[in-house]
């Protein structure tokens, strides 16, 4: 198997999960696409250093997280936003709105978490990484991961407490 085939076999199956994480970190589909594209470019350039048989998913998420951290540093810790001026999204029928309302509240609560907690909670509870994998991705000790997840979940519970019926 040549390098391109190996890259496709190891990396491309992770695209959906990478985009999901990028979207949760950025809160914007366009920024998430840019982040995933840059992650894939860096992964391709560094693929000769990837060891077959190791966790490609954790390797990619590490690249994504480091890239996001670097971008925030370069932007002065404030992501750029662009206001779209139009009529907005179409209004969903009442029964559809009721079905999605809980999901939107959770998404808003997640977006409101400080990034260090949000990243840890998303990697554990949504992406289902182990604590050791999260520690590798975030570059922190396992104890710190456990603390961030605990604190992030507590902040989520607090944020959602007033909204639960």
Topology:
Elements: H1 3-11, H2 15-26, H3 29-45, H4 56-74, H5 94-112, H6 115-126, H7 131-138, H8 142-161
Helix pairs in contact: 2-3, 2-4, 3-4, 4-7, 6-8, 7-8
Describe the model:
The chain is mainly α and 165 residues long. It has 2 domains: 77 residues, Rna Polymerase Sigma Factor, Chain: A (Orthogonal Bundle), CATH 1.10.1740.10; 71 residues, Arc Repressor Mutant, subunit A. Helix content is 70%, strand content 0%. Helix 2 crosses helix 3 and helix 6 crosses helix 8. The longest helix is centred in the last third of the chain and has 20 residues. About 8% of the residues have low confidence.
The count of helical stretches stands at 8
CATH fold-level assignment of the largest domain: Rna Polymerase Sigma Factor, Chain: A
The CATH H-level superfamily of the largest domain is RNA polymerase sigma factor, region 2, helix turn helix motif
How much of the sequence is in beta strands?
under 5%
Q: What's the CATH C level of the largest domain?
A: Mainly Alpha
Which structural class is indicated by helix and strand composition?
Answer: mainly alpha
The residue-averaged pLDDT reads 83
Q: Please give the radius of gyration in angstroms.
A: 18 Å
Brief overview:
By secondary structure, the protein is mainly α.
Give the key terms.
165 residues, mainly alpha, Rna Polymerase Sigma Factor, Chain: A, Arc Repressor Mutant, subunit A
């Amino acid at each position: 198997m040549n390098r391109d085939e190996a890259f496709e076999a190891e990396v491309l199956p992770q695209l959906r999960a990478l985009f999901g994480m990028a979207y949760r970190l950025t809160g914007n589909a366009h920024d998430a696409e840019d982040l995933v594209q840059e992650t894939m470019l860096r992964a391709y350039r560094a693929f000769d250093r990837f060891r077959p048989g190791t966790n490609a998913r954790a390797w990619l998420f590490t690249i994504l997280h480091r890239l996001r951290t670097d971008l925030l540093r370069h932007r002065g810790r404030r992501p750029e936003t662009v206001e779209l001026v139009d009529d907005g999204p179409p209004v969903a029928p009442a029964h559809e709105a009721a079905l999605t309302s809980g999901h939107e509240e959770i998404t808003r609560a997640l977006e409101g978490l400080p990034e260090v907690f949000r990243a840890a909670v998303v990697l554990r509870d949504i992406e289902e990484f182990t604590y050791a994998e999260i520690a590798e991705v975030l570059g922190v000790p396992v104890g710190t991961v456990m603390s961030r997840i605990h604190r992030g979940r507590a902040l989520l519970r607090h944020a959602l407490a007033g909204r639960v019926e």
